[in-house]
Structure formats: structure tokens, C-alpha cells
Write a structure and sequence with these properties.
The protein has 282 residues and is α/β, with parallel strands linked by helices. It is built from eleven helices and nine strands. A six-stranded parallel β-sheet has the order 1-4-3-2-5-6, sandwiched between helices. A three-stranded antiparallel β-sheet has the order 7-8-9. Bound molecules: adenosine monophosphate (AMP). Residues 29-30, 36-37, 39-40, 146-147, 149-150, 173, 175-176, 183-186 line the site of adenosine monophosphate (AMP).
Length: 282
Amino acid sequence: MQICRTKAELREAVKGFRAQNESVGLVPTMGYLHDGHMTLVRTAKAQNDRVVATIFVNPTQFGDASDLDAYPRDEDRDFALLKAEGVDAVFVPSVAEMYDPNAQTTVETEQLANLLMGALRPGHYKGVCTVVSKLFNIAQADRAYFGEKDYQQLLVVKTMVRDLDMPIEPVGVPTVREVDGLAMSSRNVRLSLEDRQAALILNKALAHGDYEISDEREVDELEAELHRFISREPRAKIETIDVRDAFTLEKPQGKINSPVVILLAARFGDVLLIDQRVCDPS
Ligand code: AMP
């Protein structure tokens, strides 16, 4: 596995693959890898001749400097995991390598970036779109893999690719969970034992919401029911509970009669966790 710390090194590696007519799958991550990331890698491997992973904790998508500082990192462990999975190259740039000090260009999906998590974290999706466009431009891959766990992010990236005619296919991969149902996340290691247990309420709430959903239900009613359900866990500090159209993220009017996504965000201690589930009332 080739370790590329500069853009030039990654471009050179990909040029080599392209010279042999090989297809390339890209897996962007912020590192501290778990089986969710590795599932993206395995999916990329099944669909492409070569796989490039990237590890970059992107400062422009963090609103909160302490969240950025607290983000866990372990480069050697990540490299070992990627190598064992047969990844061909990993791109691990420094912040200085990624951002010119005079950078002044950003990419933003105007509507999608500013609702839901985007409204709570102004600038977050602009940071995501800008860094993902840069990674797309540097890696020149055929496909790029993103988790459905970050549902709004996946829609934002798909929208950006459509709107800017980017020559790459974004592929969504279902959320990978621990055996007890907690969605895998690099942040889970920062949970206390009690909070780790309490956090199971998120997946339970998604299952409850899925069960409760029907074309007789109004969105507000379902959101209130989910609020009551999660509030039964005193350690959960609810940030957002949203039931939205699964394709547009608009709030459905009236009764729910087409696929929706339930999006949850809650803090356990100081750790913000998110989870989602697409539900079809029919
Ligand atoms: P991150 O390192 O958290 O930025 O995640 C990198 C990519 O892995 C994103 O596309 C995430 O949506 C995806 N991802 C993170 N956790 C999971 C999971 N539990 N299941 C599937 N994909 C995931």
C-alpha cells in the first residue's frame, strides 16, 4: 500500500493505475477507522480495480475547535487496517498540503447545506463539499463511497456531483452497526460505559419509529412520539429529531405516504452522535 502525503504523490499513483486502464474507487474518511469505514472499502474493492482511501480531519467542516481537537486519531492503526483490506493507496495530507493560505474558493449546495444539521452547524456542509471536491479533483476516481449514516452528507455530495457535472459516481453504503445496534462511529470511543449503554436508545427509537410509521401518521405526531421515546433515557440530550422526505429532505405535508428518513442527533456526555433510518409507510 502506497502512503501518499502530498497531492503530487497521489496524482502519480493514480496515473499509474489509469495507465493500465484500471478503475479507481475513492473512500474519503477522517480516520480512526472502524468496520463502517472498512465496509466502504470492501464495497469499493468489489466494484473497482483499485481503491484509494483518504484520511484527513478537515478543519473547515468543524464549527467547534474543541470538537476538532478531541477528534480521535491513530495513523498507524489505520494504515494496518487499510493494508489488511488490500487498499492500494492512502492519501494522508497535512492541513497545509490541502489548503493554500490564500484559498478563496468554496463549494456549497445552497438549499441542502442550510437545513437540518446544516442549520445547526453553519458552514459544515460548505466545508464538506469543498474538501470532497478537492479530493475528487486530486484522486480522479471513477466512484466515491459514502455512508448512509451521514445521510444529509450523502445527499449533499450527490447533489453537488449532479449540479457541477463532476465525472464521478457517488455510491451510498448502508449504516454498519455494533452487534447491539449502536451505529459505528469514530466518536464512540469517547463515550463513558454508561453513555455507551444509553446511546442504544437511538437505534431503538429508529426501530420504534419504523414500526409506528403508517400512512395515517402526521410528521409532527411521529416526531413528538420519538421525542417522548428518547426522553425516557435521561442521559440522552436530544439535539434534533426530524422526519423528512427521503429524497429531498423537505418536511412532508400532512400524512406520511412516501418514503421518509428519520434523522436523530443527541449528545451523550459531550459526545454528539447521529443516526438515521429510511422508512417506507406502504
Ligand atoms: P468519517 O470518518 O466519520 O468522516 O466517515 C467517513 C465515511 O464513512 C463517511 O462517508 C461516513 O458516512 C462513513 N461511515 C461512518 N460510519 C459509518 C457506519 N457506521 N456505517 C457506514 N458508513 C459509515
